[in-house]
Amino acid sequence: MALRIAMAYRKVSTPAILVVAGTIPAHLVARERQEKYRQKWDESEKGRWTRRLIKDIDIWTNRGFGNVDFHLTQMLTGHGCFGYYLNKYKIRASSECVDCQAPVDDAEHTIFMCDRWWRERRSLEVNVGSDIGAESIVQIMLQSKRNWLAVKTFVAKSLGTKEEEERQAERRRMLN
Ligand SMILES: [Zn+2]
Predict the structure, then answer these.
(1) Ligand 1 mean position to 91 CA, how many Å?
(2) pTM of the prediction?
(3) Which among 130, 115, 124 is positioned nearest to 155, based on CA atoms?
(4) How far is the CA of 152 from the centre of ligand 1 (A)?
(5) Could you give the CA distance from residue 134 to residue 141 in angstroms, rounded to a whole number?
(6) Which of 8, 78, 140, 155 could cross-link to 49 by cystine, CB 3.0-4.6 Å?
């Protein structure tokens, strides 16, 4: 499972992963090339979810703080332990949420909608002083180190737990 997941995570589109990592590739350093890269980003179909979250590459890349870990990457790319994703890569038979039975479990569902995490989500919202959603979360993170850490903690808790439970389910499937 860990390996299959790790391999599936590698299917993230190149522009999306580069933007999330804040890495403008070395060969694109020249200014005019950067412009081209930005255009590519704006037109990219594959990185659509990431683009919804990270609207402005410059602000994201030039933020003075905030590192992106494994689980934040999953939220930002949509590639992770989500029913939709596991189903797409034939790891799971259904795309539904194992926690609340919503028909499609994806990054948006888990982070912003799933009932299982409402308590933690609400406490995050109180903590950062605003509602969170796909359109606002990155903006909220970029407001302060404190906000960044609060979001990161929520994401690590929800996605880390899901992942551990999926690992256990996979182990049970192998034993049966
Ligand atoms: Zn759910």
Answers:
(1) 18
(2) 0.82
(3) 124
(4) 19
(5) 12
(6) 78
Distance from chain centroid for Cα 158: 11
Residue-wise pLDDT tens digits, 7-34? 455 666 667 777 777 765 555 545 555 6
Say how many Å lie between the CA of residue 147 and the centre of ligand 1: 24
CA of residue 118 to ligand 1 center, whole Å: 10
How many domains, in total, are found in the chain? 1
Burial state string for 136-159 with b = 16 or more CB within 10 A and e = fewer than 16? ebbbbbbeeeebbebbbebbbebb
Domain that includes residue 166, residue range: 2-175
Q: Residue 89 in contact with residue 11, Cβ under 8 Å?
A: yes
Query: How confident is the model over 48-73, as pLDDT tens digits?
Result: 899 899 988 889 988 999 988 889 99
Task: Name the DSSP letter for residue 161.
Answer: H
Short-list 100, 69, 98, 71, CA closest to 83? 98
* Distance from the alpha carbon of residue 125 to the mean position of ligand 1, in angstroms: 18
